[in-house]
Amino acid sequence: MFADRANIYIRSGKGGSGHVSFRRELYVPNGGPDGGDGGRGGDVIFAVDEGMNTLADYRHKRKYKAGDGEEGGKRRCHGADGEDIVLKVPPGTIIKEKETGKVILDMSNKKEPVVLLKGGRGGKGNQHYATAVMQAPKYAQPGGKCQELEVTLELKVIADVGLVGFPNVGKSTFLSRVTNARPKIANYHFTTLNPNLGVVDLAGGKGFVIADIPGIIEGASEGVGLGFEFLRHIDRTKVMIHLVDAASVEGRDPIADIRAINGELEKYNPEILKRPQVIAANKIDAMTEEDRETVLDLLKEEFAENGIEVFPISAVTGEGVKELLWHVRKLLDELPEGAMEFEQEYDLDFEEEEGGINVANPEEGVFTVEGPKVERMLGYTNLESERGFDFFQKFLKRNGVLEELEAMGIEEGDTVKLYDLEFDYYK
């Protein structure tokens, strides 16, 4: 079963509490404190599994909890750490906060596992609290709190090119001709139920991934049919191929079809229409030369002002297909490489313990900003993008870091260090 959306509850582990105990040995009547520290709670970790292509596993199990840390023991015994839980997801998965629908993390370009929820720290045993005044402390530190969240996992397939068109215009036949995909082909009047992906191989290793996006019919953006379920898979595609029935075998108007599909795409996400498009006028093998010229002229006249080129093809015989594919390759070459990534919109702002952010001035002209809250933010924020860097600046302002730096006397041109990163400070 193909599943591209799932709601789940995730929780990191609680930290184990520190222990209160005292040495009890022969000939040592008043031994000192020897309570051990509690174990760290387990983390919730997300990792991409290249072998997965569906979120079906998360439809059956909805709650995922990391292990809790164990309490410390006598004789300075350290409690065992809680086990981390690793949630594997397909490439292209986005993690959203369930209630707001805002993006927390996009796993599309993540090569390494990402810690999303940190486990609670282990509490210190009473051995740490002995002083010259209080030599027998009867208290220990409780374990740190867990972090919990309800999230929506959403799979947006990673494909360079999106193939769109009304049902029965020949998309499955086209995909089976140009790629290694083998979709079911028949004279269906309803849409394919799964997004089919295939790899187009061109000479010189210039291939690309193409996806047949099902369900895009009039009203799809409002959820008519299965359209709403599959429109999300078009979000990452860089180039769109509109496949139309140029021969009007079933009485369809190719111009009206393209207008209808573009209308649905615009309602769903206006940014999609800014991406390059190309029209594949299919089924020319069922047309006379005169009819071909008439239809092609009408299509070119209608969409020339939008910079959309028209290619006459036959998915059955292969006529014109190679020219279309090389044109698409040329369009892709003019665009940035790598999968399109969604910027973070939701800040995991959990209540921090024992100082979430520490600001210091270790030497003249140099300031450091550290702490678990900063470390986690850096783990899931792309500082190389404009939106990511803007999010980072708002994070510093919202948490009072900029105000604290100014109170410590920072001046323009001074260096701000966040672990391995360095920035020059400017107001």
Automatic annotation (TrEMBL):
Role summary: An essential GTPase which binds GTP, GDP and possibly (p)ppGpp with moderate affinity, with high nucleotide exchange rates and a fairly low GTP hydrolysis rate. Plays a role in control of the cell cycle, stress response, ribosome biogenesis and in those bacteria that undergo differentiation, in morphogenesis control.
SUBUNIT field: Monomer.
Ranges where the OCT domain occurs: 349-427
One biological process term in Gene Ontology: ribosome biogenesis
Claim: Plastid is one of the keywords in the record: no
Cofactor(s) needed for function: Mg(2+)
Binding site for Mg(2+): 172, 192
Coiled coil (UniProt feature): none
Top-level taxon of the source organism: Bacteria
Enzyme class (EC, first level): hydrolase
A single MF term (Gene Ontology): GTPase activity
Binding annotation for GTP: 165-172, 190-194, 212-215, 282-285, 314-316
Protein name according to UniProt: GTPase Obg
Compartments it resides in: Cytoplasm
Enzyme Commission number: 3.6.5.-
GO cellular component: cytoplasm
Organism this protein belongs to: Anaerostipes caccae (strain DSM 14662 / CCUG 47493 / JCM 13470 / NCIMB 13811 / L1-92)
Domain Obg: 1-158
Protein family (similarity comment): Belongs to the TRAFAC class OBG-HflX-like GTPase superfamily. OBG GTPase family.
Domain OBG-type G: 159-333
Keywords assigned by UniProt, alphabetized: Cytoplasm, GTP-binding, Hydrolase, Magnesium, Metal-binding, Nucleotide-binding
